[in-house]
Design brief:
Strand content: 15-25%
Number of strands: 18
CATH class of one domain: Alpha Beta
CATH superfamily of one domain: Metal-dependent hydrolases
């Protein structure tokens, strides 16, 4: 090859690389940021590995990753690094909310406002449990690239039986298309080509299939098998109607949501019946016998994660109706918060991994994520030790997302996702009301700078 042709090929390669960087949203300052060094110096570290507090530690961050962790007396800040004095604060892994819905029936502006609030509440990643994946893909992208202030967003595509798609929420999430006929809101029958359906769901950017309602056990198992074959996680309602919680767990799903559903021994045939029929609440009767104990043992054996979502049942208790059954007559009064706390306590005692999801955005609270309330309910209502609640909100959350190699603990090589609080959370998770600083992918967000507007900390172009 002539020298001229070789030089031309190199020039073309440089142009192509530059174009790819431009399309990806990179610019020289972003490339420089990749090697920026910051030392968070002097905090008491609760790393999520053993949760034994280590006093006066320093965390060296290079770009978006943790490079070194060492006692402050031993770590000399490298030349050119920025030193942030966090003496007196407690450093932990960034929190993870494993159950949100930010793109079901919300505008982009509303979703960004919720994400911003969550980040400044110490949350660095969250799991959206089914919505409009067209919107979720964009929200995930702009947060990942640091164009907006928000947690990283991981999301699911939903599958359910055809009868479920009368639910108005599915129509909101499929606006412009037909609910039940789109890859992110798919009606499934025994005739469905699951290989194609799962592949199309993957094409939306979803990392998981959420199995929602109105499916028999055989289809729950078939969806789970195909999703796993294609490298997707499977997240499910604990009871899928008519599939029971036992059948859902035996299908091999990775996590199940809503603790009270584990106490349902005689489920209704459909999701709508479970919420509409006054006697349907009787399905919770006698749910704390040997069957529940056996189910919890099986969850422990399989490593099935329980996404308890206690806080949403507290809201239902206070309002008297379920937000998922809006417009429907209330079912016979049953304290599902009490049931959920009892089930979660039993799951905790049985060694089941519990994650921290809210399933409510609590949009009236502009300042703090409802995750704070979920942590308190796990501690005070379900009887979990503060250290174990922290483990649930960090390491278990990361495993729920399939991201435990990237986040969930404070270790060298992992993403620099950190939250700094003023009080010791091992004394009580009330400490998460004292967030001082959140670091997401190496970028700091000081709680004192929080405002409803994002102009102050938006990435400069």
């Amino acid at each position: 090859m002539s020298r001229g042709k070789l030089l031309q090929q190199r020039a073309n390669a440089v142009c192509t690389f530059s174009l790819l960087l431009l399309l990806a949203g990179y610019h020289p300052s972003a490339l420089a940021q990749a090697d920026a060094l910051t030392v968070y110096q002097g905090a008491t570290l609760i790393d999520g590995v053993d949760n034994v507090p280590k006093q006066s530690m320093s965390i060296l961050v290079r770009g978006e990753r943790i490079q070194t962790i060492a006692p402050a007396s031993q770590l000399v800040p490298p030349a050119g690094s920025k030193v942030v004095d966090v003496t007196g604060l407690y450093a932990l892994p960034g929190l993870i909310n494993t159950h949100v819905h930010i793109a079901t029936d919300s505008t982009r502006e509303q979703a960004l406002s919720l994400m911003r609030r969550d980040l400044y509440s110490g949350i660095t990643a969250e799991r959206d449990m089914a919505g409009d994946t067209r919107q979720l893909a964009e929200l995930s992208r702009v947060s990942l690239l640091g164009e907006v202030a928000g947690p990283d967003v991981y999301y699911a595509a939903l599958m359910a039986g055809p009868s479920f798609f009368k639910d108005e929420r599915t129509h909101h999430a499929a606006r412009g298309a037909v609910s039940g006929e789109v890859p992110w809101m798919r009606a499934v029958t025994p005739q469905t080509d699951l290989h194609v359906a799962v592949a199309e769901a993957r094409g939306t950017g979803a990392i998981a299939i959420k199995i929602y309602a109105d499916l028999p056990a055989q289809l729950v198992a078939a969806i789970t098998k195909e999703a796993h074959r294609q490298g997707m996680l499977v997240w499910a309602h604990a009871t899928v109607y008519p599939a029971t919680a036992k059948q859902v767990v035996e299908a091999g799903v990775d996590s199940i949501s809503h603790a009270p559903m584990l106490a349902i021994m005689n489920p209704a045939k459909t999701y709508a019946e479970a919420h509409l029929h006054p006697a349907a609440e009787l399905q919770y009767a006698d749910g704390f016998g040997p069957q529940l104990a056996s189910l919890l043992r099986e969850m422990k054996r399989r490593g099935t994660i329980l996404d308890a979502t206690l806080v949403v049942f507290r809201e239902i208790k206070h309002s008297g109706t379920s937000p998922s059954a809006a417009g429907h007559p209330p079912a016979q009064a049953v304290n599902r918060l009490d049931i959920g706390e009892r089930v979660t306590h039993d799951a905790y005692e049985a060694g089941v991994a519990i994650s921290t999801g809210t399933d409510t955005e609590d949009e009236d609270n502009k300042d703090w994520s409802p995750l704070r309330d979920e942590l308190l309910l796990l501690q005070d209502g379900a009887g979990m030790r503060p250290a174990d609640v922290i483990h649930s909100a960090t390491a278990v959350g990361a495993r729920t997302l399939g991201q435990d190699k990237e986040m969930g603990t404070v270790e060298p090589g992992k993403l620099a996702n950190l939250v700094f609080v003023a009080k010791n959370p091992l004394d009580g998770v009330e400490a998460f009301s004292t967030v001082v600083l959140t670091v997401k992918r190496g970028r700091p967000f000081w709680r004192k700078d929080f405002s409803l507007s994002d102009k102050k900390d938006q990435t400069k172009k």
